[in-house]
Amino acid sequence: MPDRQSPISDQSGPTAPAASGAGAPVRRLRPAQLLFEPQADTPEPERFFDLDSITDPAELLLRSTELALAFRAAAERATDFQAVAAAQLADPRRFDALSPTEIADRVEWTPDYAARMVEYGRGLLKQPRGGEH
């Protein structure tokens, strides 16, 4: 038999303490109303890593070159991860192994490219990982 002194929560929000008396109803607290409408943020002008604000051509060349190299490195690393994932999905030891055609369909590759990525990924998986002994 439940204790009559403790209010039963229906998980619909916080409860206020019951009024004095054992059988008093439990009062629910409501969230406070907004008294103002929050200002809508005006969209900022589009910036590309603040390159458009650099006026010195030498500095612009240096910064844009740094970004291009960083993006190339990131794209190469992402491609390696794609290849590893493709190789893992095509692993014949998996009960749900996918064919290169099925992998190609998932990521909009050609079946030939998917097959090459699977082979590349298998090569990456065979390499010892750096930093591990």
TrEMBL record:
Polar residues: compositionally biased ranges: 1-11
Bias type Low complexity, positions: 12-25
Region Disordered, residue ranges: 1-29
Superkingdom of this protein's organism: Bacteria
Protein name: Uncharacterized protein
Organism of derivation: Kitasatospora kazusensis
